[in-house]
Amino acid sequence: MHIPDGYLGPQTYVAMYGVMTPIWVVAARKVRQTLRRREVPRLALAAAFSFVVMLFSLPVPGGTTAHPVGGVLIAILLGPWAAVISISVALAIQAFVFGDGGITALGANCFSAAFVGPFVGYWLWSFLSRRPGSGRRAGLSAAIAGFISVNATAQVAAVLVGIQPLIARGADGRPLYFPYPLSVTIPAMAFSHLFVGLAEAVITAGVLAYLAREEIQLSAGNRFDSFEIDGQP
Fold it and tell me: What's the CA gap between 75 and 207, in Å, rounded?
């Protein structure tokens, strides 16, 4: 899902920076309002966690790359706005220091991976976890949210690169940037992220189950009461 430089035309990457700028501003304000000072190291740890899991990237034919993100896990632990900040920081470091993902495409990458994915997954997890149930049910809710989240992120990236042949063509009609259309990018990203989604699901549910067992608190001060290990709270 790391879109590199040269894949997006200025019509797209400038627009995506324009979209992400107010999102970053709102996220910074929300984090300052809701995150307590002693929890700031958790935000840095979340960014480091996302940075590490995104290093395990696989090339996608006709697309970009496939990898876990950890967005839903961070959103559940610290809130979705904190996920925006932490994942954006991880993506920025990867782009500027390691060349993983384009600098011009950073706004687009942050929109898909740091905003769409965490919010979609967090809203889904919130909906599924409203009803009380067993630890297995709560774990399944987190796993489903993680799976859907990373696939939503992938599809946004697929659309952004897939529309390039439609909006950026030379005088001879050839695409100026990414050459493959939506008919290639959408199925390619959907197929590859079925497997990556399973990894995201396992990471999300597994870490939350561990935190529940150790009775580690959420940033809001609530424990993972909906998680039970082997029937025991």
Answer: 13
Q: List the domain range (segments joined by +) for residue 170.
A: 10-213
| C-alpha–C-alpha distance, residues 97 and 99, integer Å | 6
**Residue 83 placed within a domain:** yes
CB contact at 8 A, 146 and 201:
yes
At residue 201 the predicted structure's pLDDT band, cuts being 50, 70 and 90, is: very high
State the CATH number of the domain containing residue 150. 1.10.1760.20
Taking the C-alpha atoms of residue 195 and residue 179, their distance in angstroms, rounded to an integer, is 25
Question: Within a domain: residue 139?
Answer: yes
Single-letter amino acid code for the residue at 84: V
Condensed to tens digits (0 to 9), the pLDDT of residues 30-75 reads 998 887 776 778 888 889 988 888 887 766 655 556 788 999 999 9
Enclosing H/E stretch for 58: strand 58-59
Euclidean distance between CA atoms 178 and 164, whole angstroms: 6
Q: What is the DSSP string of 76-143?
A: HHH-HHHHHHHHHHHHHHHHHHS--S-STTHHHHHIIIIIIHHHHHHHHHHHHTSS---HHHHHHHHH
Q: Answer yes or no: is 198 within a domain.
A: yes
Question: Into how many domains does the chain fold?
Answer: 1
Element housing 148 (H / E): helix 135-162
